[in-house]
Automatic annotation (TrEMBL):
Region forming the signal peptide: 1-19
Native species: Metarhizium acridum (strain CQMa 102)
Keyword Transferase: no
Bilayer-spanning residue ranges: none
Name of the molecule in the record: Beta-calactosidase, putative
Domain Beta-galactosidase 1-like first all-beta: 258-335
Length: 370
């Protein structure tokens, strides 16, 4: 994958035979005739699921694909995390979890861009970049509203939708009239779970263990296939750190809360302020002459909702003591996470007051290390 400037890139890959190891299946000539996807001229329904190899240790890739094949799926949809492939500008890593370029059939131009923007010049630039670097089929995916499809669609790129299939398929039929954007229908994200904050205040929502929800999902997928359409189950395999998908909002009191996790040091003593409490916690008392240090842990960015636009990270607003005493004159430093000396001895941390980065390995059956 050679895409720059994109955090993630959607792709679909043909599954290998269940009896074979994880090797590139024959991609063939993947096209469409407006009503069907065609692989080497033969109609094919994409029965897919979202599974991201970069979130799964490579020794498990074959087993995960075999599980998908056992579900009668024939396609994997995945994100590509470019920050892992190019961690430093101009420095590339296609090994291990990043060795993901297999039998790519389709490349997704943008995902739900119409929910937040309508810049056609941006979409055109993205399309040209992908066409210059990939041979795969291009499509774009949006929600079921007219404004979503108007904003996110682009002349010459197949428009697809995600969500409740009956709603989104009808929306595309109603709102997308440019013939160069039309083709076989895909529910690009058929939700069998919901991305949520796994905390005591907001339990995760799953189809598993709920017979009514399971029946609805099966009925929906049968309906999709009966209409000669395709789907991607979202998610087929998760391994997602949910905390990296959320962002803080202003507390009800009107005070700003941190957009990340802040480890607070007062004369070396440690406390934490993060997104979990409804209001910022009082970590510890301060007195004149104390040394206050704040270590901000980057928890990533939100990837959906209107808060995506203009979101701010880290410490937003003033740091105050008491009701209105503003602390200023800060010295800010970045702390690179890379371990420069692999052979350095583990330091002896006696009091637990100093920030420390640890790197370790653990054994897996068969002698592998991760």
């Amino acid at each position: 994958m050679f895409v720059r400037g994109a955090a993630v890139l959607g792709w679909a890959a043909a599954l290998p035979s269940l009896a074979k190891p994880f090797v590139a299946a024959h991609r063939g000539n993947f096209t469409d005739d407006r009503h069907n996807f065609l692989l080497d001229g033969v109609p094919i329904k994409l029965k897919g699921g979202q599974m991201d190899p970069q979130r799964i240790p490579p020794p498990y890739w074959t087993q995960r694909l075999q599980m998908a094949k056992a579900m009668d799926l024939n396609t994997i949809f995945s994100y590509v995390f470019w920050n892992n492939i190019e961690p430093i500008e101009g420095s590339w890593d296609f090994e291990g979890r990043n060795a993901i370029a297999r039998s790519i059939l389709m490349n997704q131009l943008e995902n739900e861009y119409g929910s937040f923007g309508k810049d056609k010049a941006h979409l055109q630039a993205m399309a040209e970049m992908l066409k210059a670097n990939f041979n795969g089929f291009l499509y774009i995916n949006d929600g079921d509203g007219k404004s979503y499809l108007d904003g996110g669609s682009l002349h010459g790129i197949m428009a697809e939708t995600d969500g409740d299939s009956k709603t989104v398929f009808n929306a595309r039929d109603q709102y997308v009239t440019d013939p160069t954007m039309l083709g076989p229908q895909i529910d690009g994200e058929y939700y069998v779970t919901w991305i949520d904050d796994c905390s005591s205040n907001s339990p995760c929502q799953y189809t598993s263990g709920r017979p009514d929800a399971t029946k609805k999902a099966l009925d929906d997928l049968d309906w999709i296939l009966a209409g000669n359409n395709s789907f991607s189950i979202y998610m087929l395999h998760e391994c997602t750190n949910w905390g990296h998908l959320l962002v803080m909002t202003t507390a009800p009191s009107g005070r700003e809360r941190p957009r990340d996790r802040v480890i607070v040091y007062v004369n070396g003593e440690v406390g934490v302020i993060d997104k979990t409490p409804a209001t910022p916690a009082t970590v510890m008392d301060l007195k004149q002459g104390d040394v206050l240090q704040l270590l901000v842990e980057n928890l990533g960015r939100i990837d959906y909702s209107q808060q995506l636009k203009g979101q701010q990270k880290g410490i937003v607003g003033n740091v105050t003591v008491g009701k209105d005493a503003v602390l200023d004159g800060w010295s800010a430093y970045s702390l690179p996470a890379a371990l420069t000396d692999e052979k350095a001895k583990t330091p002896q941390i006696k009091d637990g007051r100093t920030p420390v980065l640890y790197k370790g390995t653990f054994g897996l059956p068969g002698g592998r290390e991760q």
